Every structure is written in structure tokens, then in C-alpha cells.
Amino acid sequence: MLTGEKVALRARQADDIPILESELHDDVMTWSRADNRPWRPFSPGSADSPYRLDDSDTSQAKFSVVELSSGVLAGEAVLWGMDMHNRYAHVGLALRPAFRGRGLGTDIVRVLCWYGFVTRGFNRLQAETLADNEAMIKAAERAGFQTEGLLRHTAWVNGEFADLVILGLLAAEWRRPGHQPDGGDA
């Protein structure tokens, strides 16, 4: 488990899946803004669930996010599109509605940076988000990411095209915290 100041990132558990499906996937409008795949329904327990347990997929590292103050599942975090040859990955997160606006996003991104740069040895982490997703843009910027570009009308979202912002952070630019996310010494 990786622990930040406000959150812990841990392996996904079977009990997390119905909660994530209900609060993140079943909200069609929010899902469509947060994921580049089109929304489609699936049955509970389906192999098509984006939250299913699948340790064989080495192109991503999925975490469940737990808020430290309450000990409750707050959402999910993921490094996806991991490219070990070029040493980069994409960061992503989604919070349950009750946990949004609590400042957890920045802590999640910081812990993902630790995992990506220190544990996995990546040289670059990247975030893509809708241009109007101020919460994700601010969370990434607070964690050290820089806006690198705008992809105009790249995302099909709820019946219209939207712009995407690309943010990046290089290992050499990352401000490594003085301690590991789990509280140990560096």
C-alpha cells in the first residue's frame, strides 16, 4: 500500500468493484467526461467491468483510493498505457461524488508520481483531461505537471467534441518528497 498525506493507494479488492461500478460507471454523464471509451452498460460481475480484477494486464496499474481520515473507499487511481521501453505512463483518477472537493486529487497524483518515478522507473508521466476539468488540471499542476498543449476537438463527450489538455512531468523535474509515501525514510 502507498500512503500519502490524505489518501492510501492499495490493490483493488472484490468489495470495491460494486461501489466503483455504481458510483463511477453508472453515472453516464460523468463517465463520458472522465474516460476516453464510450459508455456502455454491463451486468454486475461482468468481465467487461473496467474495475474488474485482472493482474495479467501489465499495461496498467489499478489502485483503489482510500481516504485516510475515514478509512473509506474514495475512488480509483491508475497508471495506464505504461510503456516500459520508452519509460512513460499516463496518470488517471476518479473520485466518488462524496469525496470530490476535499483536495484528495493532488495527493493521489503525488502518490502516483512516487510509484511511477521511484518504483517503476519511468522518465515521464502524462495526464490528459478535458480542458474544462479545472479540478484535474489544478491537481496535476500542484503535483508539478506542466501544461504542454491543447488538442482541439479531440474528445467526443456527451454529443459534442471537446478539447483535451496535455500535462506532463519528467522525472528530472519532479520534486521528490523527503520521505516515501508510506511514511518510511528515503
Can you characterise this structure?
The protein has an 8-stranded mixed beta sheet, with helices on both faces. The mean pLDDT is 90. The protein has helices at 16-25, 28-34, 104-119, 134-142; strands at residues 2-3, 7-11, 61-67, 73-83, 88-95, 124-130, 146-157, 160-170. The two termini are 16 Å apart. The longest helix is centred in the middle third of the chain and has 16 residues, at 104-119. A hairpin with a 3-residue loop joins strand 1 (2-3) and strand 2. It has a domain at 2-123: Gcn5-related N-acetyltransferase (GNAT) (Aminopeptidase, 3-Layer(aba) Sandwich). It is an alpha+beta fold and 186 residues long. It is 23% helix and 34% strand.
CATH homologous superfamily designation of the domain at 2-123: Gcn5-related N-acetyltransferase (GNAT)
Total beta-strand segments: 8
Categorize the overall geometry. Answer: globular
Distance between the termini: 16 Å
Binned, the helix content reads 10-25%
Strand content: 25-35%
Enumerate the strands of the largest sheet in spatial order, edge to edge or round the barrel. 1-2-3-4-5-6-8-7
How large, in whole angstroms, is the Cα Rg?
16 Å
Number of H- or I-type helical stretches: 4
How would you spell out the order of helices and strands?
A: EEHHEEEHEHEE
Q: Could you name the CATH class of the domain at 2-123?
A: Alpha Beta
Low-confidence runs: none
CATH architecture of the domain at 2-123: 3-Layer(aba) Sandwich
Alpha-beta content class? alpha+beta
Main sheet specs: 8 strands, mixed
Compute the average pLDDT. 90
Offer a quick outline of the entry.
The protein is built from four helices and eight strands, in the order ββααβββαβαββ. It is α+β, with helices and mostly antiparallel strands and 186 residues long. α3 packs across α4.
